Amino acid sequence: MNRELESLDAVFREMPDLKVEHTGPRRTRIQVEADALPTLLELLKGRAGYLHLSAISCVDWPDTEEFELVYHLWSYQVSNLISAHTRIPYDPGRYVSVYDLHAPAVYFERDIHEMFGVWFEGCPDQEPFILTEWQGPPPMRKSFDTVAYVNDTFEWREYQPEWANDPSGGKG
Amino acid sequence: MSTDPNQAVACRTVDAEERSLLGRVLDRIADHCRARSLFVLHYCTGCGAIELPPTMTSRFDLERVGMQPMVTPRQADILLITGYLSVKTLKRVVMTYEQMQGPKYVIGLGSCTINGGMYWNSYATIKLLDRYIPVDNYIAGCMPRPEAIQQVFLDLMGRIDRGEAQAWKDYYRRYDWYLGQQQQLFGTNWQAPTDVVGEAIRYRLVGEQTLGSHTAHLERYAPYYDQLGIIRPEPARMKARPQLEVVSR
After folding, report:
1. Which CATH code of 3.10.20.30, 3.30.365.10, 3.50.90.10, 3.30.460.80 fits the domain covering A3-164?
2. Binary contact (B127, A150; C-beta < 8 A)
3. What contacts 24+ positions apart, CB below 8 Å, involve A62-70?
4. How high is the ipTM of this complex?
5. Across chain A, what does the average pLDDT equal?
C-alpha cells in the first residue's frame, strides 16, 4: 500500500461506502453522497491532513437536472489531490456551506451561487462577486444561451472592405 | 447692438464660438506642442498589454516621439484600452475617462474594442467601445504588433497637430446619447461621479444632445441645470451657448 492510501485508510474505515478511484499518481477521485460530504471533508481534514481546499467547482448536468459539486483538497503531507464529487438536484438547488471547515470556501461558494444559482446554507456572503452589473439568470447554466443574449443586448459593427486597403484610412 | 449695417459699428454679430485670429494661432501652437508631449494611460485589462513593454522600452522606444506612460488619469492625455472590456471594467473605464482633462484621446487596441474580437459571444464583454466613450483611433489585430501601435500613435500625433483629433468634444456635445448607452448596461440610475454637463458648460461644448431624457435624473444634483432650460426645449436656439455667469453659480 502506498503512502497516499495509508493516510486515507483511517478515513475509509469510517466511511466504507465511498467510491474511491485512483486516477493518477497524485490524484484520487471520491464519489460521495450529498449528505455525507461534510463528514468526509471533516475526516479528511482531521485524520488525513487534507488541510487545503484549493477550489470548489460546479458542473451543470441538464439531462439529470443535477449540479455536480467538486471539492478539490490538497494534502501537503503526502502531496496528493483529492477531488470529492457529489451531486445535488436542481430543485431546490440548496446545499450546505463548508465555510466552518474551510474558510476560503466562502469565495468559491459565492462564485458558484453567482454563476449557477446554487444557494449555500451557512455561507456568510453570497452577494454578487464578479458580475456586479448583471441582471440576468445565472450565466454558467447550460440553459443560458449566451449567443442569443449577446445578439439581443449588443449591436455589431458592419465590416467595411475598404478598411483593408489603407490601414491609415488615407491619413497616413 | 443694432444689426442695421447703416447704423451699427460692427457690421455683423460676433459668434461667441468664433475664435479670434490670435486665438486660432495660439490654438495651433498649443496643438503643435501638445502632439509632441503625450502622456499615455494604459488600461491593461486585456491581453494587448503584452505588446506595450516592447513598444515602450528600448526595442521600439516610444519616448523618441515624446510619449511616456502616465500612472494617473488626471495627468494623462491618451487613454489606451488594451483589449476586451467586460461590463464591470467598462464602468471603471468610463469613470477613468471622465476624470481625464480635455483635450483627451482614446485609442482602442485590438479587435476586441472594435467588434468584440474573440469574445464576441461572451455575455460579459462589450462589443463596440465607441458606443460608451468617443474613440479617436482603433488598432485592428489580435494582437497588433508594436509597429502597428506606433503607426497609430504617429497618426494620432499628426491629427492632433492639425487640430483634427476632436472626438473628445463629442462626449460633451452628445452626452445624453453616451449616457443612455451606458445606462443600457449599468441600469437607468447610473451616473458617474463627474459632472460632465458642468464641464460641457465650462468648455462651451453644450450641444443639442448634451441634455435629454437620460440626463434628466442628474438635475437634482446640479441646481444650475435649471439655467439650461432656456436652451433645452428649442433645438433652434441651441447655438446660444450658456454664459459664464451660469458656471459661477
Report:
1. 3.30.460.80
2. yes
3. A62/A142, A62/A143, A65/A89, A65/A90, A65/A91, A66/A90, A67/A93, A67/A116, A67/A118, A69/A37, A69/A95, A69/A112, A69/A118
4. 0.80
5. 88
